[in-house]
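# nightly structure sweep
# worker-07 picked up a monomer target from the shared queue
# config: single-sequence mode, recycle default, output format = structure tokens
# input follows
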Amino acid sequence: MKNKLVGVTIALVVILAIFLLLVYVGGNVMGIERLMTGENPVLRFVFVIVGLLVALGIYFGTKESKAWEVGTRQVVWMAIGAALYAIFSWLFNGTVFFVPSISQVALRPAIAIPVFFGYAFGPIVGFFSGAVGNMFGDALTGFGLYPQWSIANGLVGFIAGLPLLFSDRKKSLDAVLGAGAVLTLIALVIYFLNRTLPNMMFFDVANNIFGDAPISIFAGISLLVGFALVVIVRFAFGKDLDLAASVTWGMLGNLLGIGFAAVSDVWINGYSLPSAIVGEFLPAAGPNLIFIAILVPLLVVAYRAVQKQSGR
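# output follows
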């Protein structure tokens, strides 16, 4: 038990240390522009620490589980997961297609990576892969660092690894699916009550202004499309509880993790709650969920094939 606590604590402290080195040493001390963060850096790190404490709190509540073991094998997977997520985030983050939003949101098929690593190797591996991978991906992209969004990506991978804590997989799946349905419904209601929120990534060339168009209906209903795909996977693979769990818990991780980041911007950027939900959460979480439902099963199947060939 003591070794697990040490391993989990070290992993979380390393995440915080990497964030601080990149932002304060790379951005502030060395003046590297791509490593600088936006306004309210202290408040951003307050939310980083909150996210880390959430993970630590869940550990203490379930510390008997073997899912919390952090050894050499897990460290290797952390490094691989973070590297893959950083590279693929860089490839897609803003270089392919911007999603209508009030801030910079891009399509991210790479979100399947921290979800898969959390599912396959445990919540701490998923947390590190998502958080550190996103931070380095943002650094490579050059649009600046947003540590609270990186910790949110870590929470996506972390929550995707939580089914390892449950002995009754089917019962937990039903509860998670129900929670996802409630969160999706709430987000959709907020969207339809705030349809006129401007798309600040739209530039009207004729009038030389940004935001001269509302958030598109696709951004608004993409979460519903993603949730529908998750339901299809859940019941189409009803007998394969592990595969169903990877997608269903990935859904919950996406909703809570991205929701955490969007709500943090109510304080950090001064957005209203509806603006944060409609302008950031839906454009980010909706497409993410579609990619999770489609790509994570493919990664799980491929991983099983590799395990089978290697005799594990």
